[in-house]
Design a protein that fits this description.
With 271 residues, the chain is α/β, with parallel strands linked by helices. 37% of the residues lie in helices and 24% in strands.
Length: 271
C-alpha cells in the first residue's frame, strides 16, 4: 500500500512516517542537462508491500530507486528508510539493508554461482558455514539446486538462471527492502512469466518491502499491490491495479492502452 500527498485536486489519506518502510517527503531532484527529474514527490510505501513504479522513459523511476539507497540525495525534501532520512544513515549500512536487482543482473564473472550469492554475507563477515548454508538456501528458494548450480560459472547460465541468481544474491543477507530495476525486462515472455510466478511465491513467504521499476503495465499489475504512475516528475496516481485500471485520467491512459488492446484481442468476437 502507498499513499501520496495531492499536488492538484486529488484527495488521498496521509499516514505518519512510522507507518511506512519507505517515505518520500516532497522530494525534488534535478539532473543536468535534463533539468528537473522529480518535482515534489510524496509517497509512503507500507512495510511488506510491493509497489511498482511505471512511466515513460525519463519519468524518474530509476532516480527514485537511487534516492532510496543513497546513491543520490534529494535537492529538496527527504527520503526516509525505516524512519530515518537517508542523509542520517551510514550509506554502507543503508545499502547492506537494501537488496538491489538490476536488469543486466551484474553478476561477477570471476565468481561461481554460490560465490555471487555469498558476496554480501561475506562482506558482513558471516561465518563460512553460515554463508554456505545461506547461499544454498537462497538458490533453493529461487529454484536452482545448489548441488547442480552452486559451483558453476555464471557464464554457463541462461538469462533466466542469471536473473534467479541475481534475486538470490539480493536476498542473501535478508534485507528488509528490495529494489528491482527492470528485473525481467531482457527475458523472453515465457521465462518472464515463470519468474513472475516465482516472485509472487517468494514474496508470499518473505514479505519484503519491494519497489519495482518497470515499463510494462501488465508486469506491474501482475506483481504489485500498488502501482505508482510517474508523469513529468510527479506522482500522477498511486493505487491498487484494479482501481488504476478504471482511471479516466488522460495522463495515465497511454500506459493503460496496451492492456486494453490485449483485452480486446482476447475478448470473444461479437456476432
Amino acid at each position: 500500500m502507498c499513499f501520496q500527498r495531492p499536488y492538484c485536486c486529488d484527495t488521498v489519506a496521509l499516514v505518519s512516517v512510522s507507518d511506512g518502510a519507505i517515505v518520500f517527503e516532497h522530494v525534488r531532484y534535478s539532473r543536468p542537462p535534463a533539468g528537473r527529474v522529480l518535482d515534489g514527490v510524496d509517497l509512503t510505501v507500507a512495510a511488506g508491500s510491493v509497489i511498482a513504479l511505471v512511466g515513460r522513459s525519463g519519468a524518474g523511476k530509476s532516480t527514485m530507486l537511487r534516492l532510496i539507497n543513497g546513491l543520490l540525495l534529494p535537492e529538496e525534501g527527504r527520503v526516509l528508510v525505516d524512519g530515518r532520512p537517508t542523509t542520517d544513515w551510514d550509506l554502507l549500512q543503508l545499502r547492506r539493508n537494501i537488496g538491489y536487482v538490476l536488469q543486466d543482473v551484474g553478476l561477477f564473472p570471476h565468481l561461481t554461482v554460490e560465490g555471487n550469492v555469498a558476496v554480501v554475507p561475506s562482506l558482513l563477515k558471516w561465518e563460512p558455514e553460515k554463508i554456505a548454508a545461506r547461499a544454498a538456501e537462497m538458490l533453493q528458494l529461487v529454484g536452482l539446486d545448489p548441488a547442480v548450480y552452486g559451483n558453476r560459472s555464471v557464464r554457463q547460465l541462461s538469462g533466466g538462471q542469471r536473473q534467479r541468481v541475481g534475486v538470490a544474491r539480493a536476498l542473501a543477507a535478508d534485507p528488509p527492502v528490495l529494489l528491482m530495476d527492470e528485473p525481467f525486462g531482457a527475458l523472453d515472455p515465457v521465462t518472464r512469466s515463470e519468474l513472475h510466478g516465482e516472485f509472487r511465491d517468494i514474496q508470499t513467504r518473505l514479505r519484503k518491502t519491494i519497489v519495482i521499476v518497470t515499463h510494462d503495465m501488465a508486469e506491474a499489475f501482475a506483481l504489485a499491490d500498488t502501482v505508482g504512475v510517474l508523469v513529468d516528475g510527479r506522482l500522477a496516481a498511486c493505487a491498487a491495479p484494479k482501481e488504476l485500471a478504471r482511471s479516466k485520467d488522460l495522463r495515465i491512459a497511454p500506459l493503460l492502452a496496451p492492456l486494453a488492446e490485449i483485452g480486446a484481442l482476447l475478448s470473444p468476437a461479437q456476432p
